[in-house]
Amino acid sequence: MAANFTCKPCNRDFKAEEDLQKHMQTSKRHRSQRCEACSRNFAGVESLEQHIRDSPAHNNATAPTTKPTTTTTTNNTPLDRFFRSFVSFAYNPSLPPAKSHGLLRRHMGWLKDSSEGDRAKKGYQDALVDEVRIWFGNENDLASWHTLCRAIGIEEIPETIEACEKVVRKTHVNILDLIHWGRGGGGDVGVQVFESWKALRKYTLAANKIFPQRSVVNEKGETNVVLRHLLRRFFFTRGGSRKARM
């Protein structure tokens, strides 16, 4: 059976959307797209086109004349589908996910104990988990590690998985920030890196950028490079174990 997702410039087929998105981010052939208006680089023509469409700063800008490079679009990701399922909500894909979720709750008038709001929150959290798997791949794939290294601002990208794991191991970053970085085209500027678990926790709770705990029951059984190596537990149960993660 033929693959469902094709990169036209490379003439390569991929079996899953996340594999194609990862290829678009890590392939050198797709890193040269630049927005001249704001001096940001994007992983491919399609990411640049989405940026121009969605950014308020480019309402009068003209999208590149080059034809889209893939058969998929980055504005049809799990988060996009979740937010667009609320037809009365004016969704802006360029906003950070946590910001969009807060605006959605305000728009719908959901209170803290709203059952409808709780169901929507679960859908939002499920979309976050799926989104991570699109933008960041398997820990056994060197390209996945290279994407993660670029996201956290590693200037000299290691050449082996073992070396990548070593430089990433003690890094403290917010996973929702990683998602937003991927959705923005994976530019040259990485996410904010924190000096300690305590500093990351303070930032995460203040910004309400909390990644759902239930996404990973046991890190040892997880294969995603981000979920396996960068989840951080923040809340504690009565028994003393950390409960929620980020």
From TrEMBL:
Residue ranges occupied by any C2H2-type domain in the UniProt entry: 5-35, 33-63
Span list, region Disordered: 52-75
Signal peptide: none
InterPro entries according to UniProt: Znf_C2H2_sf, Znf_C2H2_type
UniProt keyword list: Metal-binding, Zinc, Zinc-finger
GO molecular function: zinc ion binding
Alphabetized Pfam families for the sequence: zf-met
Domain of life: Eukaryota
Keyword Zinc-finger set for record: yes
Biased segments, Low complexity type: 57-75
Identification of the protein by name: C2H2-type domain-containing protein
Naturally occurring in which organism (per UniProt): Lasiosphaeria hispida
